[in-house]
Amino acid sequence: MKAYLKRNKNDAADAEAICEAVRRPSMRFVPVKTKEQQSALVMHRGRQLLIRQRTMLANALRGHLAEFGLIAAQGLHNVAGLIAIVRNDEDGRVPDMARRVLRVIADAIVKLDAQISGVEAQILAWHRSNPMSQRLAAIPGIGPIIATAIAATVAEPGEFHGGREFAAWLGLVPRQNSTGGKTRLGGISKRGDSYLRRLLVNGAHAALLRSKAAKADPWLIALRGRRPRLVAAVALANKTARIAWAIMTKPDSYRFAAATA
């Protein structure tokens, strides 16, 4: 409503601006989600919080052990080796005074791993009970996590006029700065739902890793040949978002386009 606010800001001016904005014919309203969708989003938000906490603790464990010359390769799966060192009382590379504190951090990481797995099991159970989520999971680059996130977030997919508008809502379309009849397109706008956008881009990276298979999408193979990997991942995420919108608004299921000889 900022565009409709006149001069100074006060309660009366704010109320007038809200009334003016609501009456605009082009104004859009957020559909009300069901309690089931809100509950699914709570699971996703809780999972993200636990993952952030686990990452913080893993980085702390890496940093503290690096002071003693114990360095592990990147990746969360390599933290298990550091946890084993901390829990081994016979390993003299870590002083006992530091080991007591580092063991608390290591135990917290293990506990968070179990909690994250439990939340993911709940998300998977909801995915199996939701027909829309199951249909979305058939799209390459979309798994149960992404499918449930889209099904829970997008309450009314018909509110979007097309797949491109849905992709624009996710911030996966080029940012435009055109004037004088000259079109200027930059990087993606990164507007809208950052959580869904991140999931789709991560899913696109996973799909790119499998794009060398014999049954890979010909469009994806050609894209890999002419564009850098990161650009190709965003382009694939854009296409995946458009396909997801089509699946949500139509009764058809996803049909894989096989390569032609």
List keywords for this structure.
261 residues, mainly alpha, 2 domains, two-stranded antiparallel sheet, 10 helices, 2 strands, 60% helix, globular
Task: Outline the structure in words.
The termini are far apart. 23% of the residues are buried. 60% of the residues lie in helices and 3% in strands. By secondary structure, it is mostly helical. The longest helix is centred in the middle third of the chain and has 34 residues.
The stretches of 5 or more residues where confidence is low (pLDDT under 50) are none
Instruction: Please report the number of helical segments.
Output: 10
- State the helicity in percent bands: 55-70%
In the residues, how many domains can be counted? Answer: 2
- The proportion of strand residues reads under 5%
Structural class: mainly alpha
Strand order of the largest sheet: 1-2
Which term fits the overall shape? globular
**How many beta-strand runs?**
2
Q: How large is the radius of gyration?
A: 24 Å
| First-last Cα distance | 55 Å
Order of helices and strands: HHHHHHHEEHHH
Q: Average pLDDT across residues?
A: 89
Q: Characterize the biggest β-sheet.
A: 2 strands, antiparallel
Brief account:
With 261 residues, this protein is an all-alpha fold. The chain has helices at 11-22, 35-66, 79-87, 96-129, 131-136, 144-153, 163-169, 194-209, 218-226, 229-249, and strands at residues 174-176, 185-188. Helix 6 runs antiparallel to helix 8.
Topology:
Layout: H1 11-22, H2 35-66, H3 79-87, H4 96-129, H5 131-136, H6 144-153, H7 163-169, E1 174-176, E2 185-188, H8 194-209, H9 218-226, H10 229-249
Helix pairs in contact: 2-4, 2-6, 3-4, 4-6, 6-8, 7-10, 8-10
